[in-house]
Each structure stands twice: as structure tokens, then as C-alpha cells.
Amino acid sequence: MTGVAHQPHEHRSDGAETQPGLVVLGHGSRDPRAAEEFATLLDLVRAAAGDQPVRGGFLELADPPIDDAIDALVADGADDVVAVPYVLFGAGHLKDDGPAVLDRARRRHPNVRFRLARDLGVHPAVLEVAEGRARESRHRSGTRAPAATDAIVVIGRGSTDPDACADAVKFVRLLGDGRGLGLVEPAFQAMSSPSLDEALDRCRLLGATHVTVLPLFLFAGVLVERIADRAHAWSAGCHGVGVTVAGHLGADPRLAALVVERQREAREGDVRMNCDLCAYRVRLPGFEDKVGTALSLAPPERSTRGWRARRAANQAAARSTEKRERPRIGLGRRLGAPPSPERDAPAVEVTGLRHVWPDGTVALAGVDLTIANRERVAVLGPNGSGKTTLVLHLVGALDRSAGTVTV
User: Fold this and answer.
1) CA–CA distance, 92 with 27 (Å, rounded to integer)
2) Predicted confidence band at 160 (pLDDT cuts at 50, 70, 90)?
3) What is the pLDDT of residue 219?
4) What is the mean predicted confidence (pLDDT) over 74-95?
5) 54, 59, 65, 68 alpha-carbon torsion, rounded to 10°
């Protein structure tokens, strides 16, 4: 996620090239430090976004308003605009205010295409930044190497949206997996549980003698200060546990590159959702050996999952076959069960498969594929080449436009 992204130009119906534009959608804060960090982030995004225009604005509490930022972007010449919400997880502001912002923009600029990208989300880049903040804090406190008595509490804003809270807990779990950070526990500043005090109590009961509190916030502000005050107050309560507070995520080149990646996904229709964290796609700590491992094309009943049940069934079938085919003496010749002709039939046979999506996009055309019994196959190709569509046909999840699929 380094370097400068060059956005491909699409074409309008009249054949002219479109001009992509990126607007970063921030929540907004009355704290001037947050506005300064947002301005720094925009500079980093511009450095990563190539020659396309980039603007940024806020939903509330700060200037410029997001509507003004969009109008300025259109004035810069952009007619294919992607709004990237600079929020960690999708909750009310993204799910409600984001679409409303673009609806207003479409009314003001009917000849401009507007698209809304997804949140930053549970992504390796965000995990890397969070890990770095935790290690920096441990280094400052003199805790150079995580020991059995070290712990981290990752505290997020909290939300009434269960989806956002679930993503936060998933983020904390992935941060604690394979990175050698010791015990890592989630907490929320408000609206959700556990609270910071509850998470710190849990770490103490599990034997921690030092806890790093990591604010999972993008910008500085009053809430980050309250978290630090609450953490130090808890530590001063004679618990025998030392507490240090790490820095928040802040403006970081890796997060700026992720903003540009979210724009590319929205423009190319390549929103990967939780596949960003697939062990087969990216190099996650502790799972490096899984990168690039081919996934079986076999349907669920023949997949690698549930292998114990299949092994038991195969062993039972083998014993039954052995008993059935055990030779007996009769008139000078061996007698046994005849071979099954089905054993020679292919496991998968695809002929002339064609799939067209409702918008007219041809995903597959004239695909022929034969997979023999016990043969393993890996489907390789660039994004958009139809790999997922083919697999969905093999498992019976899609209706084909033409051709046959036999599994």
C-alpha cells in the first residue's frame, strides 16, 4: 500500500473521458487539533492519489462542510466522484449521513457521478498502525518485550450499532493474534461494554502487572483525553498495575493509502469486504504460510471442511467394499463385486457456461471445464476475470445464462 495510485479513466456515454475525484468525508470535531490532523491526512492522501483532485470536508462541528468540499471538487473538474468516509467502522454517520450527503450532491450536480466507498474497516493497514502505536508506548514505558504479565486494552468510541461494535471486537482479536503482544482486550468509551475500568479489571484478574491502553481513535480530542485521565485514575487506585496510554492512530501514510484503495474499490466495483483479512490474500502475522494457498473448487460435501466425517464415511465404505469383494473359491475362479462405472466419471463437468449479470456485464462466456475424481484445481486470474462467479456456479448458488454444470 505504498506509492502513488493512478486511477484509470472511464468514459462517458459521449465517449469523453471522465475525471475522477476523491472527497474525504470526516465526522468533524470542535477540537482544533483534530482539524489539523485531518488537514495533514488530506496532504498524505493527495500524495498517494496521483494527479486527481482531492478535497475533504466534515459532516458537522467543523469547516469546511462536506457539501462545500464536494462543490469545490466538481469545480476542480471532477465528474466521477467517490466519497471515502474517514471512519473506522460503519455506524450511524456512515449508514445514514453518507447516503444523504451524496443524494444532495446528485441534486446539485446531475451530470456528475457520485459513489460512496466503504469505511476503513478491519484492514491490515489499520492493524499495522495500531500495533505500531502499542509498541511505541511500550518502548517509552521501558517495556521492550511483551511478557506474560503485559496486556493491552484497545478502547474504541462505542456505538449503538451492533455491527460497528462487532467489527471493533474483531479488530481487537486480530490485533492479538500472532503479533506477540500478549493479552489484548477490547473496551468502549461509551454506549457499549465492557468499559475501560471493566477491561482493566479483567487484565488485572488475569495476572497483568502492566497494561497499555490504546485509544482506537483517528484524531485527537476530548474523548482521547478522557480515556487517558480514566486510565491513570484507575491505576492510582492501588491496584498494583502500571498503566501507560498509547497514542491514537492519527494521520498516517498507510491510512492515506487505504483511503485511495477504498476509492479504487468503489470505482472498479471491487469491494472486498472481510476478504481484506483473508489469510489466503494478505500476509497476517502467524499465518504467513497460508498466503497464496489455493482454495479447493470442490462443493461443500467434498471440501476440506468436515474431513473427519468424510474420512470416517470413506473408511466405513472401504471396509464394506473389502468385505464385499473378498474373493471366495467357486468352480476354480475368483468371484467379487463388479467395478462401479461411476468411479470413472468426472467429479465436475462444465460445458459452454455463460453468465450475464443483470446490468449486462458478461462475467463468463463459453467456459468448459472438466475435473477428474480426486483431482485438485486452483482457479487463478486477475480481479474481475470471473473466478468467484465460476465457483458460485459450481456450488449451485447462481442460475446460469447458458451451458451446463454437472457436479
Assistant:
1) 11
2) confident
3) 93
4) 88
5) 60
Q: What is the DSSP string of 59-70?
A: SSSSSSBHHHHH
Strand partners, 331: none
Whether the predicted pLDDT of 145 surpasses 60? no
Number of domains in the chain: 3
Of 372, 361, 364, 373, the closest CA to residue 391 belongs to 364
Lowest mean pLDDT among 13-22, 152-161, 261-270, 387-396: 13-22
Q: What would you report as the CA-atom Rg of the chain, rounded to the nearest whole angstrom? A: 28
> DSSP letter string over 383-406?
TTSSHHHHHHHHTT-S--SEEEEE
Q: Specify the pLDDT at position 331.
A: 42
Which domain CATH number covers 206? 3.40.50.1400
Name the residue range of residue 374's domain: 344-406
Q: CA-CA distance, 178 to 128, in Å (whole number)?
A: 12
If DSSP codes are grouped into helix, strand and coil, which group holds residue 86?
coil
Indicate the residue type of 367. V
Beta bridge mates, 120: none
